[in-house]
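Why do we bother with a discrete structure alphabet at all? Because it lets us treat a fold like text: something you can write down, compare, and reason about line by line. To make this less abstract, here is a complete entry for MFS transporter. Read it the way you would read a sentence in a foreign language you are learning: slowly, and without expecting to understand everything at once.
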Amino acid sequence: MSSRPPARLGPLYLAGFTTAFGAHGVAAALGVETGDIGLTLLGFGVVLALYDLAEVLLKPVFGALSDRVGVKPVIVGGLAAFAAASLIGVLLPSPIWLGVARFAQGAAASAFSPASSSAVARVADPTSTGRYFGRYGSWKSLGYALGPLLGAFLVWWAGMPALFAALSVLALGATVWVAIALPRIPVLPRKRATLADLAREVGERSFLVPTLVLAATTGALGVAVGFLPLLSTHTGLGPVGGMATVTVLALASTLVQPWAGRRHDAGRLPAGAGTATGLVAIAVGLAVAALVPGPVTLYLAALLIGAGVGLATPLAFAHLAASTPADRMGRTMGSAELGRELGDAAGPLIAGAVGAATTASLGIGVVAIGVAASGAVAASALHGASAKE
């Protein structure tokens, strides 16, 4: 256990920023450059989906692998693979090869993302996991906020290859930093797990409820990132104003996460009350956007959603870390990350399907109801959890 977790966790914060920047930066740039690089609308959707598909398939696998061989090799290998995958987009910027690059990037992120979460839980002192998960999440939120802006600038400056080159350099730098600065985290003795054991683990309340919270936050985040700019175009804010709402959301999450983690570690913010409050704030923000969209209310909605995500996310991860034996931390974090990815896919899908059949506002409202229901589950199921677990 490190006596100086902040210095040793710095490389992990950069790894979190890298995966967030890679996910949102390239997605936004592809949307802008679809016609210029020869992508049809269907092809655009497929290229976007390949990154998430790789994560859904591989995060639990690499999470379990990190328990077997150690988290540091998996993080270093994943970051190096991300750097190599990004080079495909530099050297072969055609639609087919961009799809290959995105799938490879997603596969690489599937390795270092859950392993990084596991490393945060293993390196940080048990009494400060909330604080450091808050900081880790804060850096990921910063990547979500800056990714589209930096991606758009790089593409404007030198085309799509410049963005992939920047991602490759960033991932390579993170690889070197992790290899040098992150301490070796020993592999712990572990008993052989059967399918029945795995089913029992993922069926435990201590896993299901925080994973539901993470799925609800990412699902709502996906809806907000897509629909706030859409609603902005109907209220006179325009494209720049729409992008600004997403930036407000991400910055609110960036600022709130470390604060929430510190309050949790100090015993002043229990997991149940904190996650429920965060989900309620998200639901209220979505409801505001759906019911009274306007130049002012959309920014208020973004602020509420971002603050809610920032409040609920580190507490859910801290609860997972506190309730999971260290010898299967990677497997648990990988499965929880899978839950996040499913939520990320389900939220926009539900909002879009309902919106297509009725109105966009009703689609957002349905997601808001689901998030509020998740908050009620969290408040009830985690009621007995102390602030420090």
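What the structure line is telling us, in plain words: The domain at 1-185 is CATH 1.20.1250.20 (Growth Hormone; Chain: A;). The chain has two domains: 1-185, 195-389.
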